[in-house]
Amino acid sequence: MCDDKNPCTNDTCDQGTGNCLAPAGADNVPCDDGNPCTTVDACKAGACAGGSPVVCDDKDSCTTDACDKATGKCVSTPIAGCGVQCLDNAGCNDGNACTTEVCTNGKCVSTALNGTPCEDGSLCTSTDTCATGSCKAGTAKVCNDNNACTTDSCDAKTGNCGAANVSDGTACNDAVPCTNNDKCTAGKCGGAATVCNDNNACTTDACNPNTGACAFTPIQNCNANCGGGGGGATCNDNNVCTTDTCVQSQCKYTPVTTPTACSDNNSCTTNDACSSGVCFGVAKVCDDNNPCTLNQCSQQQNGNCVYPAGNNGQPCNDGNACTITDTCATGVCNGANPVVCDDKDACTLDACDKATGKCSAMPIVGCGNNCSQASQCNDNNPCTVDACNSGKCANTLVSGTACSDGNACTLSDVCANGKCAGTAVVCNDNKVCTSDACNQQTGACAYTNLATGATCTDGNACTTNDGCNGGNCVGTAKNCADTNACTLDGCNTTTGACTNTPIQNCGNNCGGGGGGNQCNDGNQCITSTCVNGKCQSTNNTNQCNDNNPCTNQDACSGGTCKGNPVTCQADNNPCTVEACGIFGCQSTPATAGSACSDNNPCTVGDKCNATGQCQGTVQTCDDANPCTTDSCSQQNGCVHTPVAGCGGTCTANTDCDDKNPCTADTCTLGKCVITFATGSACNDNVACTWNEKCNTAGQCAGGTPVTCNDNNPCTTDSCEASTGKCSSAPLNTGGCTDNNPCTQNDVCTQGKCTGTAVTCNDGNVCTNDVCATGGPGGGGGCQFQPIQNCGNQCTSDTQCNDNVFCSSDKCSNGVCVHAAIAGTSCNDNNACTSNDTCTASRTCVGTAKDCSDGLSCTADNCIAQFGVCANPQIQGCNAGCTADSQCSDGYSCTLDVCNTFNGQCIYQTLASCTPSAVCKVNGDCNDSNVCTTDLCNTTTSQCLFVPIQGCNPNQICASDADCNDNNKCTADSCNLSNKTCVHVNLPGCTP
What does pTM read for this prediction? Predict the structure, then answer.
């Protein structure tokens, strides 16, 4: 049995040689170094090392305190001369380099030194240092000649290493596998050669020089007769490591003596060579440096190394010196029994060094320390108020104070229980084909396109095989062509169903005088003519109107009306995105968290908020001095102005007035005491902010910026720094939209959006070419009204009917004549006009509906497709108020307040307030009137109840046939949703 009584070695017996081996075991295994003055001892490099030392301190400056290595008890040795009477420091010298002595009030006072270099009297140690008043040995000199047959030592007087031979006969290991019973002789290790003999003349007996194991290899053709003439050929034993001869008619096999390569037919050996007539190879070394796996060479895998998990429960080293008991489990070294570091000092942070396993204690800045001023107590935490009170540091946690957590991807950082944290920036571009992330260094949102072809959906049922391309979801258009020239082929984007709408009159018979008007299909982008008695339709390139307020320069192409997208001019606000919508160009808030600049040097970390405003965190200027007023100057940054009378003598509170509305000034026990009036209303004298409050540093800050926006894309809106009033400077450049379909190339001119009149001309003399600002469903733009029977010969007035209500149709001298009937009442089919009247140009024009609500801060519009007024609030309107009553916006769910500091109206939405007829979808609106179309205006969340033209609430129907009113100038239909009849007047029809 092998046992060297050392818990830090793994004791094994070499089965080949029978020798004991003691390689170093795992580090951090608990042990006992024999020194009672150390604790938490653990193995390291095969030896037991002491852990944390026992601390001895009797609090007596006149004793040297140390731990007795024999007993482990603390011993306090009186310091010679300490405490005796003296005249000067020299009279107190005790000759100990690890104490310093001074003469104080006639008495010697000795102070123990720690960490000071010293000399312990032995040249076999280095870096000796003082500890609790005595010189402790440093790093011991290592003496090792790597000879197991010598005992190594260091001479303390000279520092030289020496080696003495161990007793002859002492067991050792000479590292030669084919020797045994190794013993020391005169300081050297040697053993007797291993004898391998199986007493079989027909085997070659040899010791494997690599392992020390005996090998007995059978000899082929052994004892065979080889006949006369030296017939060695019959003696071949197929062994390259022997020379085969025939001697006296008997085979003889002599081991080769020269280096000869061979093969031992083992894929797990290398460098195969002959030895004593046998081929031996050196075993392949497999080692993954993991003590928790078995290192094996697999002949089944062509000599490759394999490392299955093993050695479960065996000690190992997990690389963390702060775990004491490391053991193998399932091929991994797991650490347990962690080192406990606690110096019992509340003012240190105790930790274990993973590299060395030693405990360290880092002092907490300012904790327990004496101080004379607040600057000595700075703990570098913006969420504490650091002060020096009665000579001791005090670090008080604060909450609610603005700070910076060092992460650009958080907003509105504030202190909470002594820690700085903010709200995470949300990056979302609402595109399914991008991955959205925030850059923690810059705070900017980054949108990375997904790989081309990534699966997505574009929300259009008329496309297939949708996939990502360049950050956009793109699909292949569905083919709905039916090869019929007389249908308009399309696709329903909601359902994906193909639509093939017949073209009116296409292919019909026509006749008489080239009557192409008989072929009119009602499409302004298709010219219909009569050729050889048949209607033919041809696409044209005329100007037209696509009824889209977000396009201009509309023109026909491919039989449909298409326009160029309107370019919306930027409003110089980095926190808004300008885009065109139902009301033309509008500004919407940009992605919250985007970087911007509020042009205020007293804020940091400026970012866009959810309402499209640029806001920054107020810069903290607190110097922790209650006798200064801390503020931020837009010219000089942080300013610390001494508080008049602070800390000075006083007899009344008036003696301490520092003229700062954010402090409460009192005279206490004859001294001025200044405290901060946190949360009190104040004025920061910045005209373009309001609702200021005193902060925790005695500053007037936190004002809400005045928002100026007149919703006019042709003005630049700003707040006047001197007065705080909003002003708008007119622009003379930049694109815009005047929401008039009869103008094009709209641009800003002197603060107004104006465009060039659209010229309507389809080159057809038999149409009335006009531009209408509105029409059925809110349409407008160029309209080309066919003049029926134009140019035809006639014999009666009825042959000249052009279906234009505002013209008289006469047959004069055999030719049709069409004259305007100006002043006659008509219907322009625009729900936003009234009192419609015929004009001299044979068109019907009405008076625009008055949508004014009498409020100066609303934009008054009529929604043409519904004929209903919309009055959205103009943000930032009504600067220059003196009372709340001047700021009424007419909406019940806003709190209307006048900021008398700068004359600016503020409209604050009331939480949980529900305005009348609020809606999100059409289903939210129902007035129980079958003769109105109930709609939701999602822009204002207001319900619209639009009268149904010709609706008869008392006429119940089941089909269109039930609604015939025998009037040829109405289109009669049954609204199956409410079983009521609808009679719609046909434009231009004369009953």
Answer: 0.30
Range with lowest mean pLDDT among 73-77, 445-449, 470-474, 981-985: 981-985
Give 521-540 as a DSSP string.
Answer: -S-TTEEEEEETTEEEEEE-
Residue of 155, 174, 173 lying closest to 164 (CA atoms):
155
Structure tokens at 894: 């806003």
Pick the closest to residue 378 from 363, 394, 398, 400 (CA basis): 394
818: β partners: 809
Give me the residue label for tokens 């604050």.
908
Q: Are 346 and 307 spatial neighbours (Cβ–Cβ below 8 Å)? A: no
Q: 561-564 contacts: CB < 8 A, separation 24 or more? A: 561/524, 561/525
CA dihedral (761, 764, 770, 773) positive or negative: negative
In three-state secondary structure terms, 205 is strand
Exposure string of 404-429, with b = 16+ CB inside 10 Å and e = fewer, is: bbebbbbbebbbeeeebbbeebebee
Distance from C-alpha of 395 to C-alpha of 952, rounded to nearest angstrom: 80
Other C-beta atoms closer than 10 Å to the C-beta of 638 total 14
The rounded distance, in Å, linking the Cα atoms of 33 and 47 is 8
For residues 509 and 536, what is the distance between their CA atoms, to the nearest angstrom?
A: 10
Specify the 3-state DSSP secondary structure of 884.
helix
Q: What's 425's DSSP letter?
A: P
CA gap 56, 53 in Å, rounded: 9
462 closest CA partner among 481, 477, 480 = 477
CA 804 – CA 351 distance, rounded (Å): 96
The encoded tokens of residue 835 equal 């009192």
How far apart CA 976 and CA 962 sit, in angstroms, is 12
**SS3 annotation, 363-423:** ECCCCCCECCCHHHHCCCCCCEEEEEECCEEEEEECCCCECCCCCCCEEEEEEECCEEEEE
Query: With 80 as the cut, is the pLDDT of residue 451 above it?
Result: yes
Q: Which residues of 547-564 are buried (b: 16+ CB within 10 A; e: fewer)?
A: bbbbbbebbbeebebebe
Higher pLDDT, 795 or 331: 331
Predicted local confidence at residue 149, as pLDDT: 92
- Pick the residue with more confidence: 200 or 619? 200
Q: Above 60 in pLDDT, residue 515?
A: no
Task: List residues bridging with 474 in a β-sheet.
Answer: 467
Output the CA torsion sign for 589, 592, 596, 598.
positive
* Angle (nearest 5°) at CA 365 between 362 and 370: 115
Residue 197: its pLDDT value, please? 85
- Determine what percent of the chain falls in helix, strand and coil, rounding each to the nearest 5: 5, 40, 55
SS3 778: helix
Separation of alpha carbons 454 and 464, rounded Å = 14
DSSP 8-class letter at 518? G
Residue 303 clears pLDDT 50, i.e. is over it: yes
- In DSSP notation, 148-160 reads TTEEEEE-TTT--
Cα(30)–Cα(38) distance, rounded to whole angstroms? 13
pLDDT reported for residue 930? 66
Find, among 678, 121, 612, the residue nearest to 398 by Cα.
678
Beta-carbon contacts of 462 under 8 Å, excluding residues fewer than 6 positions away, are 477, 478, 480, 491, 492, 493, 496
Q: Which long-range contacts (CB under 8 A, 24 or more apart) does 42-46 make?
A: 42/324, 42/357, 43/7, 43/8, 44/8, 44/357, 46/6, 46/8, 46/9
Residue 258 clears pLDDT 80, i.e. is over it: yes
